[in-house]
Write a structure and sequence with these properties.
The chain is built from 13 helices and 16 strands.
């Protein structure tokens, strides 16, 4: 009989994705005890006692700041995410925010909302007041993009189609991202170069120690007078106090953000939204489908794709018995694993090992069943973090 799996959901997850779990093999819900895996969106897992039974965590979204990744790496637990699954939703919101800011739509709306009187009175008030909301058009203005991954590339493409000039910077751009980037994007050599050149600046970077407050007071001071700054990526990338000062000093015209902060709450030139970047039916479905498929592939076959703390490892199965080993990236680990298997009389049919930073992962296919004593021996090797036996059913 095939193994069965228990999956704990910590947030509401799209049924389009959950339906991809075969009902006969998976028990999924918010009250699951001793889960094999966890599905999460925004729930803060730093505050919970994660069961020792958990073999994988998957976030139905891109960011993983709400998950204790270092602790999970120490257990040999991969943390999956869904990069790009919500990219179109974020792109559309960024474009909408640029248009809202460029045309002063929020203050214009508030102005009209506050009017009272009959049609003639309203008409006169509108004609008298509309000059205060004169905006700008996007064509021929420059959009600066900090971060040229999937979202950044889509924003660049949309902006170019709207007639904008685009300059971008990403020191860690991947080969795939570089290929998908529109050829019209001018590649800058620094954050500072982007800030100095742009009428609009949008940031699309992960929140890391190296990127926290990357839009600092010193950098914001380099922006054009009257520039518009947009943050629909991560809370913490922008120094909000520096933004407030720049708005007061007329350096910035607007700050558009998906992350309300008390320090700028209520500021007339701050337009903050309630974290709507991925809040579309399509994005939620796409994220759920991606992470469910990744979880199934890992739980059933040991394959890893889009784990933030593990290398991508995918091995086509050509033998019925498979062992998956997560270990520290230290010398002679493969030698110890293969030696232990040889001494147990097992023939290795295929083996794949990859590393990512301090983490390494090995899949080994063998031609005969693996005794429990060998699995225990492998688990005792110094540096091995987890061992899973995945016989084909």
């Amino acid at each position: 009989m095939a193994d069965s799996y228990r999956v704990l959901t910590l947030n509401s997850i799209s049924n389009v994705g959950l339906k991809r779990f075969p009902a006969k093999r998976y028990k999924v819900g918010s009250q699951i005890a001793e889960p094999d895996a966890v599905l999460v969106r925004s729930h803060d897992m730093h505050r919970m006692d994660i069961p020792t039974t958990v073999r994988a965590i998957a976030r139905a979204g891109a960011g993983t700041n709400n998950i204790p990744i270092r602790d999970m790496s120490g257990r040999g637990v991969p943390v999956f995410n869904a990069p790009g699954a919500n990219a179109n939703a974020v792109k559309e919101l960024v474009i909408a925010a640029m248009l809202i800011a460029a045309r002063n739509l929020v203050p214009a709306f508030k102005f009209v909302e506050g009017l009272r009187g009959d049609d003639a009175t309203l008409h006169k008030a509108v004609e008298d007041g509309k000059k205060a909301f004169v905006g700008t058009e996007l064509p021929r203005h420059t959009l600066g993009i900090l971060g040229l991954g999937k979202v950044g590339s889509l924003v660049a493409d949309a902006a170019i189609k709207l007639g904008m000039n685009v300059v971008g910077y990403d020191p860690h751009i991947t080969v795939d991202a570089a290929w998908s980037l529109p050829s019209q994007v001018r590649r800058a050599q620094s954050v500072e170069e982007v800030l100095k050149a742009s009428d609009f600046v949008t940031v699309h970077a992960p929140l890391l120690d190296s990127t926290r407050n990357m839009l600092s007071a010193e950098r914001i001071a380099l922006m054009k007078h009257g520039a518009i700054l947009l943050n629909f990526a991560r809370d913490g990338l922008v120094d909000d106090l520096a933004v407030a000062a720049a708005l007061t000093g007329k350096r910035l015209r607007y700050y558009m953000s998906d992350f309300p902060m008390a320090s700028v709450q209520g500021h007339p030139q701050v337009i903050a939204l309630p974290h709507l970047g991925a809040s579309t039916r399509e994005a939620e479905d796409n994220c759920a489908v991606m992470v469910v498929d990744q979880l199934r592939s890992f739980l059933e076959e040991g394959n890893i794709e889009n784990a933030v703390n593990f290398p991508d490892v995918q091995l086509s199965r050509e033998a019925p018995f498979r062992v998956a080993i997560a270990n520290a990236n230290v010398p002679n680990m493969l030698g110890q694993i293969s030696t232990a298997m040889a001494q147990a009389g097992l023939n290795i049919h295929d083996m794949l090992n990859k590393s990512k930073g301090e983490m390494a992962y090995t899949l080994v296919d063998v031609d005969s069943g693996v005794p429990g004593e060998l699995l225990d021996e492998l688990a005792r090797i110094k540096g091995v973090l987890s061992v899973r036996y995945l016989p084909q059913h």
